[in-house]
Design brief:
This protein is about 45% helix and about 25% strand. It is α+β, with helices and mostly antiparallel strands and about 700 residues long. It binds adenosine-5'-diphosphate. Adenosine-5'-diphosphate binds next to helix 18 and helix 19.
């Protein structure tokens, strides 16, 4: 039927047309039989110039070095009914050959039919593409920076080893996943991956390259600090194309920077510390110079108060303890002279040694104390040891923090040096140390000034004593000499001396001699008492008898001074005492009662009270003023002027020492102008230690 459609001429013409078309197209068509012998070929002269294949076997025409098996395999597959393809080289060109089964008119497979395309250019392009892709991958893998490529939806397309390693991801199983999806796979990197997602969003929102630093935690190691650059890529139409993420590990750089900063800081701190130390030692050496400048106690106190200002605060107080257990605010200063009057009101605010805490605690414990305002308080309550009475002054001065250090010299606590500042938390450890150093120097200077003052006072007292003593000694000597001269005159007169006058003169000489002896004994006793060289000679002694004897001995003086005396010492009061020393006690007390008794009656009583011997000596004389009363038992202490009353100021001192050596006490009550009563209590037996 078909042959009826076309005439032979027509068919030949069609064939010629087709051959021309094929000859001009870059293809080559061939037909083989089942033994793969070429039956017919047609196609481009360009593709296969001068190729005479018909009648030849496929195996014969395969190029040398070509892998025949892949070609044959493709053809066998075609023979088995499946299309196949392979590449082959010919005349320095590459052809892609597609083969299919060829069927005869009955539809049976009669061989293969193949068509070969010249793909030389395409293969070259592909090769170039592959090469450049390989180069790119090599580049990606050789760089230590982490590189990620993501698509417009944030899906990971590509990541180099460094990038995967940062998140401990394996090469398989990350592609196509977003940060959020990857986050759900790793608990450890969850946060970091979610942070990446957020930062991607910020880059897209910015629409341009962004840079930031991210810290990616690492299991079992410190986090890696990464400098991340994100480059958004867009299609020409403005649609998102993808995101390039570059991460540079700057952990070492940061560590180096941190180390450098640390060293810099260390150096700065060392410099600052050296500067502080320099200023400190300058301050302390200038303080030492200033303190060494004066030996005047009061001037030193004022200096001490000023010395630390403003270096150690705005306000300073020097509190001193003396013999008196109470504390005295000895000096105070403010750095701002205009504030001194206000600050002066704190002079009365003396620490109470009985109260807990505050400056009193510093004195008690000898330990420094940083004083701070309590929460909600404007001023430091610890500066107001009298409750809140001075809190308004502290507030006015704006004192918000304080530092108190003990003043200790030669093992003795002298008081405290207290600084206060308007700055809260002004005082640190180094300030405490500095204040302690300053206080040490100040205490030493104050102690030196005190010792100097005491030695000056002692010298003055000695001079005073020497003048009184010489006066006291001269008086009986003058009287003695007068008596002797009178006797000389009588003796030279040649006549019988008037024996009454001689007796009076001798009596006077005896009295003055006794007075001299007493004076000299007193002086010797004082020095013995001072050096603890008095030994008691204890025996059974009746105090009443001793008192009666002394009264009898002083009968002459009593008579001469017309002083009446009432004696109540009848019952014996016996104890183990030193008779001679008890006589001394009674004599001194009775001497004084006569001397200061203004000729008014003197009452002397000896009694026994609860097993203790009690000697009372009361006069109605000039009495003693209350301010002198505490001192009269001291050495060289007197309550009257030596011009009016003689005496070395030693009698009562000796009396008290003797009484105390016997384990007893002496006590005086006196009203000026009305008289004095001395009471001596002696235990009847006492073993001196
Ligand atoms: P003095 O040698 O001065 O009498 P004392 O030590 O005996 O020394 O006494 C000390 C001071 O005490 C006296 O100077 C005097 O002022 C005062 N005094 C002592 N006894 C009496 C007294 N009975 N009445 C008044 N004053 C007295």
């Amino acid at each position: 039927m078909r042959s009826l459609l076309f005439t032979r001429e027509e068919l030949l013409r069609h064939e010629a047309v087709l051959r021309r078309m094929l000859a001009q197209a870059p293809v080559f068509v061939f037909l083989t039989d089942r033994e793969l012998r070429f039956l017919a070929t047609a196609g481009s002269e360009l593709a296969a110039p001068g190729l005479e294949l018909e009648g030849k076997s496929l195996l014969d025409v395969l190029g040398a070095g070509e892998e025949p098996s892949s070609v044959l395999a493709a053809h066998y597959r075609a023979l088995s009914g499946e299309p196949a393809r392979y590449d082959t080289e010919w005349s320095h060109r590459t052809f892609e050959v597609r083969v299919e089964p060829a069927f005869d008119e009955e539809g049976a497979c009669s061989g293969t039919i193949g068509i070969a395309f010249d793909v030389t250019g395409q293969r070259q392009e592909e090769e170039e593409l592959r090469t450049s892709a390989e180069r790119l991958r090599t580049l990606l893998e050789t760089t230590s920076d982490a590189i990620y490529l993501k698509d417009a939806d944030g899906r990971w397309l590509e990541a180099n080893d460094a990038g995967l390693q940062l998140f401990h991801l394996s090469r398989a199983g990350y592609q196509g996943l977003t940060d959020v999806e990857l986050a759900s796979l790793s608990d450890f990197f969850r946060e970091a991956l979610l942070a990446c997602y957020s930062s991607d969003q910020r880059t897209w929102a910015a629409g341009q390259v962004t840079r930031q630093e991210e810290a990616i935690p690492q299991p079992g190691a410190s986090p890696r600090v990464v400098e991340v650059t994100k480059v958004p890529l867009y299609h020409p139409n403005g649609q998102r194309k993808g995101l390039v993420v570059l991460g540079r590990d700057i952990t070492l750089r940061r560590m180096a920077e941190q180390e450098r900063d640390r060293l810099l800081l260390q150096e700065k701190e060392a410099r600052a510390a050296a500067e502080v130390a320099r200023r400190r030692s300058e301050f302390l050496s200038s303080a030492s110079r200033v303190l060494a400048d004066s030996l005047d106690y009061d001037a030193t106190l004022a200096t001490v108060a000023r010395l630390g200002l403003p270096f150690l605060g705005e306000w300073c107080a020097v509190d001193m303890t003396g013999e008196d257990p109470r504390v005295a605010r000895a000096a105070m200063a403010h750095a701002d002279p205009s504030k001194e009057p206000g600050a002066k009101r704190l002079e009365a605010c003396v620490p109470d040694l009985e109260a807990p805490g505050g400056i009193a605690e510093v004195i008690r414990s000898r330990r420094p104390l940083v004083l701070t305002a309590l929460a909600g308080e404007e001023g430091i309550l610890a500066l107001c040891d009298h409750g809140r009475a001075h809190l308004d002054v502290v507030r006015e001065l704006g004192l918000r923090s304080g530092l108190s250090v003990p003043l200790v010299a030669r093992g003795r606590t002298m008081g405290a040096l207290t600084f206060a500042s308007v700055h809260p938390d002004r005082y640190q450890d180094e300030d405490v140390r500095l204040a302690e150093d300053l206080a040490w120097r100040a205490a030493l200077a104050l102690d030196n000034a005190r010792l100097y003052r005491e030695s000056q006072e002692a010298i003055q007292a000695r001079d005073e004593f020497l003048s009184i003593a010489s006066h006291e000694l001269r008086t009986p000597i003058t009287a003695l000499r007068l008596g002797i001269q009178r006797l000389f005159r009588l003796a030279r007169g040649g006549a019988e001396p008037p024996w009454k006058t001689v007796a009076t003169s001798l009596d006077g000489i005896e009295r003055q001699g006794r007075r001299l002896t007493l004076l000299i004994n007193s002086l010797m006793d004082v020095s013995r008492l001072q050096s603890h060289h008095i030994q008691l000679d204890l025996e059974e002694v009746d105090l009443s008898e001793v008192v009666r004897d002394v009264v009898a001995q002083l009968g002459g003086v009593l008579a001469r001074t017309h002083t009446p005396l009432v004696l109540r010492a009848d019952a014996p009061v016996v104890g183990r005492w030193d008779r001679f020393r008890l006589e001394q006690v009674v004599t001194n007390l009775l001497d004084n009662a006569i001397k200061y008794g203004a000729r008014a009656p003197i009452e002397v009583t000896v009694a026994l009270e609860d097993g203790t011997a009690v000697l009372t000596l009361g006069d109605r004389g000039i009495g003693i003023s209350p301010d002198r009363l505490p001192f009269i038992f001291g050495r060289f202490e007197r309550a009257v002027s030596s011009r009016h009353y003689g005496g070395l100021g030693l009698g009562l001192y000796i009396v008290r020492q003797i009484v105390e050596l016997h384990g007893g006490t002496i006590h005086v009550e006196s009203i000026p102008g009305q008289g004095s009563t001395f009471t001596v209590r002696l235990p009847r037996s006492f073993s001196p230690g």
